[in-house]
Amino acid sequence: MRNGALLNGPITGLIGDLGHSDKIMIVDAGWPIPKDLRYDICLTHGVPRLTDVFAVIAEELNIEKVIIDSEMQNHGPEVYRDVKRIIAAAAEAQGEEIAVEDEPHVTFRDHAKSVKGIIRTGECIPYCNLVLVAGLAFTPGPRRNLA
């Protein structure tokens, strides 16, 4: 069993396969996802929340940029605030700035054509969607000395 925060095998594999500037999406329960990109962890209405999933992935992935569906500010302002808090914590943990862009939903949707995977959550607040752009991780994280 993994010792990290993320225990979901398929999503761990997705993150492990990302290179610099590759993108993944974390989306609400209503997002249409092609089967070949689907990482569906939706259990029921609101479980898991988008922010729960994002917080765990932010511990595992070096993030260069987060693109936020700008409609989130109107439809889920509490989710938007939590997303911004998670971004700030992740930037501090990785020791470098994370760029943040708010993008109108009409153009945000186009990212689905170029992502490596789409993680569907149980978030039932419309427009609660993110694109994460992978950064570089040339400096390894902390390791345990097992010798």
Describe this structure in words.
This protein is α/β, with parallel strands linked by helices and 147 residues long. The protein has one domain: RbsD-like domain (RbsD-like fold, 3-Layer(aba) Sandwich), CATH 3.40.1650. It is built from 5 helices and 6 strands, in the order H-E-E-H-E-H-H-E-H-E-E. It has helices at residues 9-16, 50-60, 72-75, 77-94, 105-108; strands at 23-27, 38-40, 63-69, 99-103, 117-120, 130-134. The chain has a 6-stranded mixed beta sheet. Helix 2 packs parallel to helix 4 (77-94). The longest helix is centred in the middle third of the chain and has 18 residues, at 77-94. The protein is globular, with a radius of gyration of 15 Å. The mean pLDDT is 93.
- What's the overall geometry? globular
User: What's the number of structural domains?
Assistant: 1
**Helix percent band:** 25-40%
Full CATH superfamily name: RbsD-like domain
Multimeric state:
single chain
The tally of strands reads 6
As a whole number of angstroms, the C-alpha radius of gyration is 15 Å
Summarize the biggest pleated sheet: 6 strands, mixed
Strand order of the largest sheet: 2-5-1-6-3-4
> Could you list the spans in which at least 5 consecutive residues all have pLDDT below 50?
none
CATH class: Alpha Beta
Structural class call reads alpha/beta
Q: H/E series, N to C? A: HEEHEHHEHEE
Number of helices: 5
